[in-house]
User: Which sequence fits this backbone?
């Protein structure tokens, strides 16, 4: 328990440290990019100075070594030199660029946004204007923070789902432990009560009394078996779904108020599917009980069995007040209930039985003042 508490406090600290490290890397990358771009601009200023000397020099004079070295050193930065006579010179372009190119104006505008144009002058006379873009290295560096943010996003998603799975696993262990302990606690007095009931029967107590006691004992035995099944990896049997559903409805109809009419509908032929019958009856009972509570003990409940491409669908429909939209995603959470006296266990247990034990799907459709329809989707094989 202490280890769990320590981990609970340690996780936010570790996540905060990881975020701080990523933030520091992003900040340093941003500063490095600014410095790198400033260096590139300084180099282009030197190149422009060399170009002004070249353009202002005697055409027949030999090109100086320094100027030549400066020209030859820049082989990556794309450049457009716009001369005052309306002509253009191009350098470091992979594709063909000409003065009549449609992309020329777009390129000049883009370069002007990326870097401030440089006027090449001889004295006060402007000889040309240099437009230049970003080198391939700067472009690659620009994507680095985005890649880092993507990695951060993936890391956060992995951490989130890992923590969520851990929470679900802890809940499952808690559910299983509680269920096994409940089954164990019920089994001990149940065995004793069965013995006492047999003794009463042997001593000639009215059979009607012992029969009713026996019904209640069977009921307690069923509840114990249900909790025992929840706490174990339960196998599935081949069960006739329609027949079993009708049996369950009949059993429940005899125990619920006569003011509630439980109707069964199905146009399907008999289907045999993998099912844990006691747990299925528990789901059916939970849904019907919820419908009775929603309708305050009066109304019609329709239990229907249908089929789609992948599943056999058992639905329970009531005409109660319905569930508000804001609660639809929460009603299957353990402990959540829209009823003041509810424990919030019925639907969460039903979802666990359908999804985890039967590998099915639980769907809830509800409209305010029109009722609720809950569907249990069971795989056909």
Assistant:
């Amino acid at each position: 328990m202490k280890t769990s508490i320590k981990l609970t406090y340690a996780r936010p600290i570790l996540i905060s440290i990881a975020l701080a490290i990523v933030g520091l890397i992003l900040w340093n990358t941003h500063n490095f990019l600014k410095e790198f771009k400033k260096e590139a601009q300084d180099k282009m200023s030197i190149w422009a100075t060399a170009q002004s000397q070249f353009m202002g020099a005697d055409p027949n004079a030999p090109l100086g070594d320094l100027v030549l070295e400066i020209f030859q050193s820049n082989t990556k930065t794309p450049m457009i030199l716009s001369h005052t006579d309306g002509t253009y010179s191009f350098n470091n372009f992979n594709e063909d660029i000409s003065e009549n190119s449609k992309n020329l104006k777009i390129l000049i505008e883009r370069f002007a946004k990326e870097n401030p144009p440089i006027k090449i002058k001889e004295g006060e006379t402007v000889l040309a204007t240099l437009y230049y873009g970003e080198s391939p290295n700067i472009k690659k560096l620009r994507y680095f923070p985005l890649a880092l943010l993507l990695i951060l996003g993936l890391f956060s998603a992995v951490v989130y789902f890992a923590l969520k799975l851990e929470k679900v696993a802890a809940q499952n262990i808690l559910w299983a432990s509680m269920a096994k302990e409940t089954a164990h606690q019920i089994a001990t007095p149940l065995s004793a009560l069965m013995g006492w009931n047999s003794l009463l029967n042997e001593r000639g107590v009215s059979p009607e009394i012992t029969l009713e006691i026996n019904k209640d004992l069977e009921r307690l035995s069923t509840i114990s078996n249900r909790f025992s099944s929840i706490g174990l990896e339960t196998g599935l049997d081949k069960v006739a779904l329609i027949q079993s559903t009708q049996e369950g409805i009949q059993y429940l109809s005899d125990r619920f108020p006569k003011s509630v009419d439980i109707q069964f509908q199905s146009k399907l032929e008999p289907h045999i599917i993998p099912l844990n019958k006691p747990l299925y009856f528990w789901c059916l009972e939970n849904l019907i009980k919820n419908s009775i509570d929603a309708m305050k003990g009066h109304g019609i409940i329709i239990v229907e069995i249908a089929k789609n491409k992948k599943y056999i669908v058992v639905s329970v429909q009531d005409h109660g007040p319905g569930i508000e939209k804001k609660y639809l995603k929460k009603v299957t959470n353990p402990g959540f209930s829209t009823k003041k006296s509810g424990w919030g266990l019925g639907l969460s247990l039903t979802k666990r039985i359908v999804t985890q034990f039967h590998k099915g799907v639980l769907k809830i459709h509800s409209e305010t003042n029109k009722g609720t329809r809950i569907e249990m989707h069971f795989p056909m094989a």
